[in-house]
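---------- Forwarded message ----------

FYI, see the Patatin-like phospholipase family protein record below. Original note from H. follows.
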Amino acid sequence: MDQPTHRAQNATALILSGGGARAAYQIGVLLAVTRLHRRSRDNPFPIICGTSAGGINAAALAAGATDFRRAVRELARAWLSLTPERVYRVTLPALFGRAAHWIFSLMLGGLGRFNPRSFLDNRPLTELLRNMIDFGGIGRAIEAGQLKALSITASGYTTGQSVSFFQGDDALQGWQRAQRLGMKTVIEPPHLLASSAIPFVFPAARIHREYFGDGSVRQVAPISPAIHLGACRVLVIGVAPQSEPVPPREKVVAYPSLAQVAGHLLDSIFIDGLEADLERVRRINRTLERLPAVEREQLGLRQVEVFSIKPSRPLERLAMPHRSTFPPGLRFLLGGLGAFRRQGSIVASYVLFHHQYARELIRLGYRDAMAQREALAEFLNRAG
């Protein structure tokens, strides 16, 4: 298992995975954390790592780490006032103009430097981020000792590397592994725009010399940045439902809709990497338990305690009752793709940035966390 780039001090990390609008689920879990943590104003997570929409949540928490309870409540308030208009342009002319741009580009074999970059225009998100997050607060929290590091992961389209941009204390250094890079910097809005740029849905963001897209793409080790930054214990909040028995294979007549195929791809981007990394960490922990302490030290390996919380229900099922909250133009386009059928609803659950859907996810996250209240409280208070 990767070693930290500085001496570990039993630091606890919070890992917030990607998932578009599904990231509202994380807020419910965090509200439960503020209730169960003995010193709820103190930040229980000196290391905070986020990817995609989880990166936005992570940055907001890091910026308000000097009063963790208040930071969580303000983040919840932001999600509970969210509408699609605050994330992407939703007027009919904007949506159909963008659709026409794609059609003409495909029919003409490309438009050169005028090729379309995404299906949705997320320029409103830039203003939302600046109003929602005091980016200067990240540095102040580090200086106050309430935060050791914030990491935001994005995927480089030129190099193919998974880059974890991190802001932290002076002792921290960058790292480089196969297709994984840790780069010390000052976290700003472009890092969040890049990390949350779902391929084809939102445009890539340029940072320095390269364009970056959603951090979940090619992120084969989502827990790794936290370990490099010194974490010995991690709380992982995912957006994938808890494992259910695999249903028996049935004969299928209808060809899968575009939304069903797209949903399958989105799940592979946002879910599979985290689940595989969790399984890998737990397997290594079990192996290390069998080795003497001296041998573990010689190998440069250490155990990492992992506590994970994930939805008890598939989040796409919560999205369907709120499909009328989509802007009319987008609802028309998604309906044509089959996103409102049962097998295609995954796509809708990723882009439904509306407070009604967010409220359902927050409630579920809170209930799921409180269902493990004893174990979670022990984890938090042992950490703090």
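H. also flagged this: The longest helix spans residues 272-289.
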